[in-house]
Amino acid sequence: MKSINIKSIIAFALFVVAIGFTSCKSGNKTETKETTKVEETHSETIEVSEEQMKAVGIELGTIEMKNLNSVVKSSGQLEVPPQNKADVNSLVSGIIKKILVLEGNYVRQGQTVAILENTDIVKLQQDYLMLKKEFVYSEQEYQRQKELNTKSAGTGKVFQQAASKYETDKARLKGIETQLQQLNISPASVADGKFVNQIPITAPISGVIGHIPIKTGSYIDMQTSLMDIVDNSQVHCDLQVYEKDLFKVKNGQTVEFILSNQNNKQITGTIYGINQSFENENKSVIVHAKINNTGGIKLLPGMYVSALINVGNQTVQAVPVDAVVNAEGKTFIFIVSGEEENTEEKGPKEKSEKAIGANPEKSIRFKKVEVITGVTELGYVEITPLEEMPKDAMIVTKGAFYVLSKAAGGEEE
Fold first, then answer.
1. Which residues share a beta bridge with 395?
2. Of 62, 131, 262, 296, which residue is 20 to 30 A from 42 by alpha carbon distance?
3. Which distant-in-sequence residues (6+ apart) come within 8 Å of 280 by Cβ?
4. Do 230 and 301 contact (CB within 8 A), yes or no?
5. pLDDT digit string (tens) for 242-300?
């Protein structure tokens, strides 16, 4: 009897252990499946709220077609044509009485920028007035001798003398009138006896006032520059192209510029001129490119640029370098897979806002797509997606690293 009870107890214990083992194994399988399912869900889509996107600066865009292969790399700086730069000078020497502009002011062509005083211009006006009155007599005498000569009542010699003096006085009068007009003095006012001892200095072109080396009371002559004016409306780019690439560059080719000191802002242009001589310093040729699109950027002469001159038609799919991330030895981009409203439980305050019509917070779902990268130029990188993507798919162009961090952190992030 005792032997039978011991065997029964051992059999019962083995049965219980078997059931527990089976139950534990089944539970582990279920838990593993659920965990795998959750991980797969997180690996397929990543949700980021609009508030989070604004906070970390995530930007969206599309994959672009860029010419990153058939290009000539170059560098240079922005310049303005010589006809868009001017020095302000005076045609006579004198003392500066007033300066009417400041550095950085915009002026129009013909606008008065300074007032100059010179006593010698009073004598010029006096000479003009005296010659004006003398010319009246010379003209009358010429007309009288001309009439007498027509009627054969006078002598030819007297008529010739009158005609010579008339033409001489006329030329002298015209010359002094031109000098007065160049000094911005009205000959008509001088003829009425209104003399001036101060003359206005005007701007030769429209533009922005640069350096002003003079001050009130300064003595200046015709060689002294009062100030300089620059018109930046026709700013262009001078690029240095080396001998090995010169044969590839032609007029009409498009250029993509990156402003080195402006957060790598990109602008476009077109080649319009190629110098026919080498620069002595570095054996390069200056290539001129006009700016087609400034993108709202304020361009100033002297800004340094890096450029790609498009010499071919091989375009590839490209995205900004900030759109590409590396993880687990692979390269990825993130595409938008959809949007949804946040339906999480709200507190009393949030519920009251929703009740009065507040817009619910939205989240954007992103999908990770593996790509192969190629050439990197001017802030863009060539990509080849390893799976088919929707046409015109929206992608993360800036802040892809934060989306990757969100995916790695899961719900905790």
1. 61, 335
2. 62
3. none
4. yes
5. 988 888 899 999 898 888 776 767 788 999 999 988 887 778 999 999 988 776 778 88
